[in-house]
Fold:
Amino acid sequence: MNKVPRQSNNRRGDPLEKTIERRVCSYAEREYGMEVRKFVSSNHRCVPDRMFFGDNGLIFFIEFKRKGLKLTIGQGREKSRLEKKGARIYVVDGVDAGKELIDRIVEDHNFRHEVGGWIR
Structure:
């Protein structure tokens, strides 16, 4: 019996969240040697998808979404809570946007590190 391929709700042809996540994480690992971890918390729901660890203490989080989708109410609340504690959390809804964000974060971090500390 032949299996019928499952239909996707992706009518616009935009990449799925898991595809965006995989490609952006691979880019960060390959281009910048970052350590990327899935963020799972047994006590808190709605945490960002991934944690990124780079050189010289660079740490940030990314929540991945399909093109045009917004954070849920719980995700927005958790993002605000963590940002109040100083966490850097970004929302990415495309592969190119994610790669550009990684480039910008690393460039900014390296500049701040080279001039002797964080400028706020």
Q: What stands out?
A: Residues 4-8 have pLDDT under 50 and may be disordered.
